[in-house]
Amino acid sequence: RSSWLLLAPLLTPPVPVITAPPCSLCPEGAHRFQWIRNLVPEFGISSSHVKVLSSPAEFYELLKTQIKTAKQRVVMASLYLGTGLLEQELVDCLEETLEKSLQAKGSSNLRVSILLDYTRGSRGRKNSRTMLIPLLQRFPEQVRVSLFHTPNLRGLLRLLIPERFNETIGLQHIKVYLFDDNVILSGANLSDLYFTNRQDRYVLLQDSPEIADFFTELVDAIGDVSLQLQRDDTVQMMEGMVHPYQGDKMAYCEIANRRVMEVINSARTRQELLHAKTFHSSQEGGSLLSQQGSQASGGLKPEPDTWIYPLIQMKPFGIQIDEMVTETLLTEAERDARIYLTTGYFNLTQAYMDLILGTRAEYRILLASPEVNGFFGAKGVAGAIPAAYVYIEHQFYSEVCYLHQQERVQLQEYSRAGWTFHAKGLWLYLAGSDLPCLTLIGSPNFGYRSVHRDLEAQVAIVTENKALQQQLHQEQEQLYLCSGVVSSSTFEQPNRYVKLWVKLVTPLIKNFF
């Protein structure tokens, strides 16, 4: 069966006609995933440009270093920016870099674009907005702050749902941080916990201008349909743009779909032309293109051995690329292949659960124990969320046991004193291989929210390079080392007791967290 045929009925507007050969005709190994480029741009890079980070502290130091050395652009998309000392230090780094760029040339080429969620970024008196207003006041021509507001939170619903709870309706959840031509992809937000003791995943793509251009254009597109933060802490839409919650919902979503799909399709066309050029050049001996490349970059560009595919999920706008690619990867995984899947919030969609339980690959699913869940110890109703996740986990485990799949599908709980767990993603090991050839990394949690409510983005990284495969394998091992295997006795522990009201309410609210 051809993987790409499963993906043909995609989205509105129509995706260009798929003309690539079926995956069964593709070479073995990493190239079996070339069908993904029928949907999104394919960026071929050298594995030497990819660095896998392992700790929050490393992530934070890299953010500061990259900000300080940026010359042309800083683009940061996150759920929110925290209000503590570490976050203030990031803002100070931005201010210093902008100031230096002004002093160096009188008029600066450096542009800073920040995309956050409106509801999360506006929570409380001191919030993401108040943190960033000084930058807007000091550098109005260089700094842009966009606050995405879901079109689904409107009218009476918007008036009645209180702060914090309004975030359950839909969010800007993408996390991408880029500095000139360097891109960091992660699931981490810009908050002190994510810089200290909240475990996540982080990958740096160095010297990757095409990928940086793509994510700059994507953030710009979402920014264009978002509220623009003003210097006096008010917000307004760009001139002529439909308002997300005051304007016509269908018209707004159509415009947003068109803007985002333009970015995806234009990048896809550019990369296809580049592939065609490279192919014809190699057919003719390849001398001219290599010479031009070496003149431009000062040296020969290495042949790509790693491919990056950006996967976008924005169901409110009718964009379901990430969901379809993920489902196809799970569907096509062969017998004896191993899939390591991790999520900080175990609440898989029914489609993902059915595929895991009904396909042939081995699964090792890493999730948060109650104590490392981000909601552990929260006040009020939110304090019951870890118990709700325990209940969902127990139901899934019971289904695994009922189907006698315990050997093939194994649950493991991350536990680490003083830490919380927020890592999400997937590593795919082909049958007979000890190293992964594909990973998914980014913002989605594989749950209902990620698929249906929020704006999400991750990348599929496919590599043939053994050293990079080893890096990815070590990343996976390091996370799973802090875990214990779930068994029936796990749910007999006192801290796994779930109150009756939580059991009754969870099925009604599980699509909101």
UniProtKB/TrEMBL annotation:
Superkingdom of the organism of origin: Eukaryota
Domain (PLD phosphodiesterase): residue spans on this chain: 168-194
Keywords: ATP-binding, Lipid biosynthesis, Lipid metabolism, Mitochondrion, Nucleotide-binding, Phospholipid biosynthesis, Phospholipid metabolism, Repeat, Signal, Transferase
E.C. number(s) listed in UniProt: 2.7.8.5
Secretion signal, residue range per the UniProt entry: 1-19
InterPro entries: PGS1 (IPR016270), PLipase_D/transphosphatidylase (IPR001736)
Listed GO CC annotations: mitochondrion
Keyword Lipid metabolism set for record: yes
Predominant location: mitochondrion
Catalyzed reactions per annotation: a CDP-1,2-diacyl-sn-glycerol + sn-glycerol 3-phosphate = a 1,2-diacyl-sn-glycero-3-phospho-(1'-sn-glycero-3'-phosphate) + CMP + H(+)
Compartments where found: Mitochondrion
Pathway entry: Phospholipid metabolism; phosphatidylglycerol biosynthesis; phosphatidylglycerol from CDP-diacylglycerol: step 1/2
Protein name in the entry: CDP-diacylglycerol--glycerol-3-phosphate 3-phosphatidyltransferase
Protein species of origin: Fregetta grallaria (White-bellied storm-petrel)
Gene: Pgs1
